[in-house]
Design a protein that fits this description.
The chain is α+β, with helices and mostly antiparallel strands and 140 residues long. It has one domain: Nucleoside Triphosphate Pyrophosphohydrolase (Alpha-Beta Complex). Helices cover 17% and strands 36% of the residues. Strands 1, 2, 3, 4, 5, 6 and 7 form a 7-stranded mixed beta sheet that branches. A hairpin with a 2-residue loop joins strand 1 and strand 2. The longest helix is centred in the middle third of the chain and has 13 residues.
């Protein structure tokens, strides 16, 4: 029996200002996890590369336009998304300052949050954030 598997991308964008580390989050407009904070991201289109899809979703949801991100990893837990079987490829970068952002598309809101203040977060995004910190060699 063939199973449909969706592919998504997630963007883990940090910014460091005056010794404080911020993380870019969006408030989800739609289910699942409607109203909860999450990483910017979404479904890959048929005709795009993973990195291109990540940068597109980041721009659509936050208005932030970047050119360079590094791959963090692939997330494939069976139940990671209640909508069905979904694989996510996460990308990360660290900016030297917070850039202007605005929530749009699937994001009700976009916000730079002090990393130390991040609490409950949707999906398996907590694990993705931890691994992005390791990838960028950022210690808290």
């Amino acid at each position: 029996m063939k199973q449909d598997i969706a592919i998504t991308t997630d963007a883990v964008i940090f910014a460091e200002e005056k010794g404080a580390l911020y993380l870019l989050l969006i408030k989800r407009k739609n289910e699942p996890y409607q109203g909860q904070w999450a990483l910017p991201g979404g479904f890959l289109e048929e005709d795009e590369l993973l990195k291109t899809g990540c940068l597109r979703e980041l721009q659509e949801e936050t208005g932030l336009e970047l050119e360079h991100v590094e791959r963090v990893g692939i997330y494939d837990a069976i139940q990671r998304d209640p909508r069905g079987r979904t694989l996510s490829v996460a990308f990360t970068t660290k900016l030297s300052q917070r850039e202007p952002i605005k929530g749009s598309d699937d994001a009700a809101e976009a916000k730079w949050v002090l990393l130390k203040d991040v609490e409950e977060i949707a999906f398996d995004h907590g694990q993705i954030i931890e691994e992005a910190l390791e990838k960028l060699q950022i210690s808290l």
